[in-house]
Design goal:
The chain is of the alpha+beta class. It is built from ten helices and 13 strands.
Length: about 300
Amino acid sequence: MEEDIRCGYVVPEKLKKIWKIQMDLALEVKRICEKYDIQYFIIWGTLLGAVRHGGYIPWDDDFDIAFLRKDYDKFCSIAKNEIKSPYFLQNNTTDKGYYLPYSRLRNSKTTGIIYANIPFPYNNGVFVDLYPLDVLTANKMMRYLQFKLRDSFRLLCDKYYAKERGERYPRSLEIVRKFFSYEKICEWMDKIYRLGEIFGGNEVGLVYHPDLIKNYKFKKKYIGKVENIIFDNVYFSAPQFKEKILEQVYGDYMKLPPARKRGNWHEGQILYEPDIPFDDFIRKKKKNGYHWTEYMGRSIEKI
């Protein structure tokens, strides 16, 4: 847990504590997947870290795991009964304050608050991201329609409980709530993400994310037969053609960013307190009269 220097970047004790919690969560995902024969693989910055650093990128502070859609559905179905406290499988069916169409495994005895999601009426423990990868249809017209439907249903899920949270919301939402349940809207939204399976396509990616889908996609065949890769002295599953994925997503992925850009991944975006349960942390801050908007864009260390 002691502070050290890696690639010219000072890795503080606090970041190492976050890594330890995330690794524990990732091992729980790995345990369930291996027990029930579910294919998973590390992805994005976590995969890059494994290939380039043999573990965490020294200035990274999250852990990404991906599944093809059918494996993701199987994992969520099994894990909700397999996972025990303080772990919590969070998605739009287990935690209604959380509308995002992918899951997170959280440790409820810690704090990991994403500023962009304030107000945050849901579990805010330190987490690992669990992403379903969907097929991107090659039909441009269907893809355009799919993305338009996606954005509409994401907004519905996001604002469905806005009234209860004291937020502003479109009045038309009252009509929607009168006839359709939150669960039904989430069900329809998930079906929209699966349209690529019907119309076909050779790429997979984060269909549900309007910004990340531009870059976070790759040819499905690059997954191939998953294989083991070392990440901080632990074996995790990785895509067979991981180098092709990293090249498509990051370009010259083995080249380190300039020193001035190291350490800027989620600074000012996520508030981490690895030693404090999130509900205690939020309660204490509210009692002391803090306003969360004051922290937006500021370094976590300055809070």
